[in-house]
């Protein structure tokens, strides 16, 4: 598998993880004030996944533009 294909696969997996994290955060928000103590940890986790996704997208864009 080429570097481009591997990076595309990574981005797809991260997009899925980001979507799941977003929904978990949304579900937590809907149930407030229940489990309010989980907000910070879940928000940090969600932030991390989206940061990783953004970095992978930039890397993919750079790789695609270099071809």
TrEMBL record:
<dbReference type="InterPro" id="IPR029012">
    <property type="entry name" value="Helix_hairpin_bin_sf"/>
</dbReference>
<keyword id="KW-0175">Coiled coil</keyword>
<comment type="similarity">
    <text>Belongs to the UPF0437 family.</text>
</comment>
<keyword id="KW-0535">Nitrogen fixation</keyword>
<protein>
    <recommendedName>
        <fullName>Rop-like family nitrogen fixation protein</fullName>
    </recommendedName>
</protein>
<feature type="coiled-coil region">
    <location>
        <begin position="4"/>
        <end position="31"/>
    </location>
</feature>
<dbReference type="InterPro" id="IPR007774">
    <property type="entry name" value="Put_N_fixation"/>
</dbReference>
<dbReference type="Pfam" id="PF05082">
    <property type="entry name" value="Rop-like"/>
</dbReference>
């Amino acid at each position: 598998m080429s570097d481009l294909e591997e990076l595309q696969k990574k981005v797809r997996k991260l997009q899925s993880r980001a979507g799941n994290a977003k929904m978990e955060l949304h579900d937590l928000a809907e149930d407030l004030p229940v489990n309010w103590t989980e907000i910070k940890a879940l928000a940090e986790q969600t932030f991390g996944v989206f940061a990783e996704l953004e970095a992978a997208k930039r890397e993919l864009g750079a790789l695609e533009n270099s071809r």
